[in-house]
Amino acid sequence: MKPSSFNYHAPTRVEEATALLAEHGDGAKVLAGGQSLVPMLSLRLASFEHLVDLNKVDGLSAIERVNGHLRVGAIVRQAVAEHSADVAASVPLLSKALPHIGHFQIRNRGTVGGSIAHADPASELPAVALALDATIEAAGPGGTRKIAAADFFVSTWQTALADDEILSAVEFPVWGPGSGFAVEELTRRHGDFALAGAVVGVQVSGDTVTKATIGLFGVGPTPLRASAAEAALLSGADAAEAGKVAASHISPVDDIHASGAYRTQVTAVIVRRAIEAALKEARS
Amino acid sequence: MASTISAGRYVGQAVKRLEDPRLLSGHGRYVDDVQLPGMLHVAFVRSNVARGTIVSIDTSAALALPGVRAIYTGADLNPRVGMFWHTMMGPPPELGGQTPYAPLTPLAGGDVRFVGDPIVLIIAENRYIAEDAADLVEVEIDVQQAIVGWETAIDTDQRVHPGTTTNVGQEFPLPEGPEVDALFAGAPHVFTRRFSQCRATNVPMEPRGIIVHYDQYVGDLQIWAATQSVSEWKATSSRLTGVPEHRVKVVANDVGGGFGQKMMMTRDEAAVVMAAHLFGEAPIKWTEDRRESLMAANQGREEIIDVTFAVTDEGVLLGAKVFFWEDIGAYPASAGSTAGMAGAVFPGPYKFPVVLPGGSSVYTNTVGKAAYRGPWMMETVAREQMMDHIAYELGIDPIEIRRRNVIHADDLPYTTCTTMVYDSVTPSETLEQALEMLDVAAFRTMQADARAEGRLLGMGVAIYIEPSAVAFGILSSDQAIMRMDNSGKVIVAMSTGNHGQSLETTIPQIVAEHLGCNIEDVLLVQGNTESSPTGPGTGGSRSAVVAGGAAMNAALKMKDKIVQIAAHMLEASPDDMEVNAGVVSVKGTPAKALPFAMIAPVAYQMPEMLPPGMEMGLEVTARFQPAGQYTWSNATHVCTVEIDPETGMTKILRYIVSEDCGRMVNPMVVEGQIAGGVVQGIGGVLFENMIYDEDGNPLATTFLDYLIPTAPEVPDIEVGHIVTLAPGQTGFKGMGEGGAIAAPPCLANAIHDALRHLGVHPTAFPLGPSQLLTMMNEAKQA
Ligand SMILES: Cc1cc2nc3c(=O)[nH]c(=O)nc-3n(C[C@H](O)[C@H](O)[C@H](O)COP(=O)(O)OP(=O)(O)OC[C@H]3O[C@@H](n4cnc5c(N)ncnc54)[C@H](O)[C@@H]3O)c2cc1C
Asked: Do A189 and B699 touch (CB under 8 A)?
């Protein structure tokens, strides 16, 4: 389990990083926290001639409020975001999702941007980004562009980023008062990737749900939005019904940890539980 | 129940482990920590298909890579092998023995037989280069359909080992028993079930590892290895290479677990030995990485057990037939089935009038079977689940049916129908203690209340009797070589191969207790063929019993000599002396006393002060041979679970063990051994599944997929002790494997109890969430 050899680059500016990527094309790969990339290199499931390390790049590690959004720099450590009062206050769903990522040792190294750029369909943060309609900022040799989360996750481990682009930040919308959020996931053991997971945000006015978002992970090739279930919730369905609607729109596959049928069945359960928890919070 | 056996100054005390400061601060010395001048590194090219003929191997590009020093294939190494068999198992039939072995070669010969089969061995300046070279080797394989699963292996006309006539490794046919058939025919009830457990792997924290240097100028083969038995490896390496055994030196420093996997040298390690012998120039090191460990190191379990019980209306056992099917993969440690042992101990804690056992071990194109903590434990897995199935069939409480059949103190000594003789076991007492620790009535109330809310709680019980310290062949005895140096400090050399059993603490406890010195003045030397006696190493729950006995005997001999010298010096009678904390004194006259440090120099330097005729020096050797072929310990496990009815997730609420391992050397170590075994048992039911697809591809080759329980999944393990002494001088009973033996059926029974009112009656592991929810769905539809 030793990686094959590679050239290591440690740029300090975004332009340098993207220039390196442009120069080496698909022979280069970005290194962030290394918690997904390094195991793949060590198992020789992937090999790259060049690694471009983002850890020393300036300007990628801030958490800041920018016109109605919380902007999280790409290399903000998951543990830093997890313990950030700003994140807890502005994007509670992100705060709630972060502790579900692996173990604290992994979150100490792993980055918010890395998790989203890696686009593992069983990961929490891509589902959060999708559910909250986050905007992904991509930096390339020609400058930056914004990509809606809905357009970002193309398929398993595949994103809308070009070879010469890095994810530089993620902007999460901040919800107003009367909102509640919840994360529910099933894992075989503490810290494992989810067999099935749901992230939910709701906003209520009195007894009425005025805003609802449901993201699913571990049950498709990408994180999924349970749009039909959101619509059901907005039109008065209860949590159990919405859960069933969410489950009826997915077709997860089997693996050694659980069958696709299992994942479908429990999705109805965890969506229900997440909605109930989110509603409780919204109403409290 | 309080123990009536009083603890000594050391034996019976929870002495903190002497090895821990070193190990817990990260300063252990495992194989990979050993660095030798000029050392080179090994990587293997392994088969990525389960079965096929090797058409060609092209190593030219790899050889051209700078830093690559040698590349060997099966054609280079296999023909050089002298003999490949294990002392503990004895020679194969063609060499006059009785043990059937798979046709063992260090590297694959003309064909590959499982995914991970080593084909090419590369020696390079470092592991990175060696792995780069491995990527450059081109192996062309004519792929054939793999033989996967024991039923396929039996049905097919294809052979796992080409040229052989059967895929059966060893068979114990079910004995003919017309009177048993008649008994079954006339029995009030006869129940049959098939139980199975999935394949697991031992997962030592330190994977396999070996450094070998053949010094061709001196003629010595020097080995550093992660092994449970340096003697075994010395003899095996000598047979492999032809280097005479006295010129083979094997050292095992710290060994990070094994659970049976490191007892006998496997093919990969043999390949490194053969390669080093051929290469000659420099030491070569192979550190198995975790993927290799999960893909290619021998594995355990994967058994199917057919049981038929005849019982009365009251649930009294009349007899049993049991047949064990074992999938032993391609290259098991030996092709021998553990069915012989499993059948012999099948009656366990119950008064079975008759048991007819049989078994068959079957080769498949998967990794070979290892001994894994309680290698025969399929008998307890089947028997203890069967007791619950029968109880439910008859409408009897599973606890009650056990009480009606369990062996009591007044039955002892008890000879089972399979001729095992129990002299001091306490299955009934441990059962009652464990149930009391749980408070069954309170649990049943809680369970009923929970069920009224739609929650699923269950409790399980399992009892077993552990055949520890099996004494036959090389396992029959152990030796201690003890020396007291000039300053009165003691070194005891033993054949043990500590790999987590705390022997560095427990053996000095025994020595200090019986010699009468301070524990810090005793050092255990082991894992070194130059200084340790020949012996079987550590495994099979033997070291406390057999090595502990030898250590005690040596200490008593040494004490005797010390006392005689001191008495002579003090002009007193040896009978009037007492020894305490390293000081020999005249009873009642504490002023007349000599510390060991003043006695020892006399033995070495002042022959004129010794009793007349006494030999100089302070060295003794002693051996211990247990009285019986087995030293029986026993325990009862009880646990409670809650299962989420909507997701099938199991949470273990409480886990209780009541055990009797005789006199405890160190209760903390006993409890640690129990906890470790229980965790492995939990893993085997809920998490660990070394699964293959139909083409023989292993699907759990990283810890992302091979799930071992971690701290949050494991409850506190509550332990109660019952102490009845083993026959013989020490009173110790071995207990290293029991935790792993009883935990699987105990947990399965708890799950069964939680779900049976729904019509769910599990018989096959794993019982993960997906399996449980599927069974609940099916029961609902039925
Ligand atoms: C034992 C273990 C358990 C885990 N459990 C979970 C879990 O439960 N849930 C979960 O979500 N994750 C889990 N992870 C993965 C972990 O969260 C990773 O940190 C994360 O997936 C990747 O983040 P990273 O910063 O480590 O990225 P890296 O590993 O450095 O990179 C991952 C990939 O993303 C690319 N990349 C990274 N940053 C950028 C960027 N800014 N721009 C463009 N491309 C980029 C890299 O090129 C690479 O392809 C686990 C990991 C381990 C080892």
From this structure: no
Q: Closest Cα of chain B to A259: distance in Å?
A: 7
pLDDT digits (tens, 9 = 90+) for B212-239: 999 989 999 999 999 999 999 999 999 9
| CA atoms in the 13 A half-sphere facing the CB of A52 | 26
**What would the mean pLDDT of B23-49 be, rounded to a whole number?**
97
Ligand 1 atom closest to residue A38's alpha carbon, by position in its atom list: 29
The token pair at B327 is 């999938």
The token pair that represents B41 in the structure block: 């590194």
| Contact state of A186 with B647 under an 8 Å Cβ cutoff | yes
What is the rounded (10 degree) CA torsion for B234, B239, B243, B246?
Answer: 40
- The CA B233 to ligand 1 mean position distance, Å, reads 43
For the four alpha carbons of A99, A102, A108 and A113, in that order, the dihedral sign comes to: negative
CA-based nearest distance B166→chain A, Å: 31
B5 confidence band (pLDDT: 50, 70, 90)? low
Write out the two tokens for B637: 């496990």
Q: What is the CATH number of domain B34-144+205-257+262-296?
A: 3.90.1170.50
Q: Given CA atoms B596, B602, B608, B613 in this order, what sign does their dihedral have?
A: positive
A161 C-alpha to ligand 1 centroid (Å) = 16
Which residues does residue A255 pair with via DSSP β-bridges, in sequence order? A258
DSSP B1-52: ----SPP-SSTTS-PPPTTHHHHHTT----GGG---TT-EEEEEEE-SSSSE
Q: Which fold has domain B20-26+472-624?
A: Aldehyde Oxidoreductase; domain 4 (3.30.365)
| H/E run at residue B137 | none
Q: Three-state SS across B90-103? A: CCCHHHCCCCCCCC
Give the helix ranges, DSSP H, for B194-264: 230-241
Quote the Cα angle for B119-B122-B128, to 5°.
Answer: 120
CA distance B693 to B691: 7
Q: In angstroms, rounded to a whole number, what is the distance separating the alpha carbons of residues B335 and B297?
A: 16
Chain A residues in contact with B699 (beta carbon < 8 A): 256
A32: its two tokens: 């962030």
A·B CB contacts under 8 A: 69
3-state secondary structure of A51: strand
Q: Return phi, psi of residue A258, to 5°.
A: -170, 150
Closest protein CA for atom 46 of ligand 1: A30
Pairwise CA distance, residues B457 & A209, whole Å: 36
**Residue A195 CA, ligand 1 centroid: distance in Å:** 18
Average pLDDT over residues B495-515: 95
Residue with tokens 């055994």: B245
How many angstroms separate the CA atoms of B495 and B291, rounded? 31
How much distance in Å is there from the Cα of A56 to the middle of ligand 1? 17
Tokens 């042992």, residue?
B341
State whether A189 and B647 contact (CB < 8 Å): no
Q: A-contacting residues of B 596-655, CB under 8 Å?
A: 646-649
**Has residue B1 got a pLDDT over 60?**
no
- Retrieve residue B6's tokens: 């009083």
Query: Cβ distance B368 to B170 under 8 Å?
Result: no
Quick one: CA torsion of A152, A155, A161, A166, rounded to 10 degrees? 100
pLDDT per position as a tens digit, A184-201: 999 999 999 999 999 999
The string of pLDDT tens digits covering residues B646-670 is 999 999 999 999 999 999 999 999 9
pLDDT tens sequence across A6-52: 999 999 999 999 999 999 999 999 999 999 999 999 999 999 999 99
A188·B774 Cβ contact <8 A: no
- Tell which CATH classification among 3.40.50.720, 3.40.1580.10, 3.30.43.10, 3.40.50.620 matches the domain A7-53: 3.30.43.10
Please judge whether A2 and B649 are an interchain contact, meaning their C-beta atoms are less than 8 angstroms apart: no
Record: fold of B299-471+628-781: Aldehyde Oxidoreductase; domain 4 (3.30.365)
